[in-house]
Amino acid sequence: MPDTAQMTISLPQDIAAALEDAVERGDYGSTGEVVRQALHEWALRHLGGAPDLTALKAEIDKGMADLAAGRVREFDLDRIVERGRTSSTRRSPSA
Questions:
Q1: Is residue 5 a part of any domain in this protein?
Q2: 2 located within any domain
Q3: Which domain, by its residues, includes 83?
Q4: Angle made by CA atoms 25, 38, 11, in degrees to the nearest 5
Q5: Are residues 78 and 93 in the same domain?
Q6: Which of 31, 60, 87, 95 holds its CA 20 to 30 A away from the CA of 13?
Q7: How many CB atoms lie within 10 A of CB 35?
Q8: Do 63 and 94 share a structural domain?
């Protein structure tokens, strides 16, 4: 990982156990990966870069209204979902 800083943190036992369980289940490769993902999501929300969920919901509502009113010529839900996944993957950090 380029430009990293090593830190030592203390966690409550229940949270530490939850991190270890996530690794044991195979959800993550290490407890450090869990912490990095959690901090990445925190940083998006608190330091900018996360989508404005209110604006996003308004756009979805507008699109659904257009669909219901017949103002949409082509609607391919699978293509839309795939575009969302691709966009989300580009924003997610590689562990």
A1: no
A2: no
A3: 52-95
A4: 80
A5: yes
A6: 95
A7: 15
A8: yes
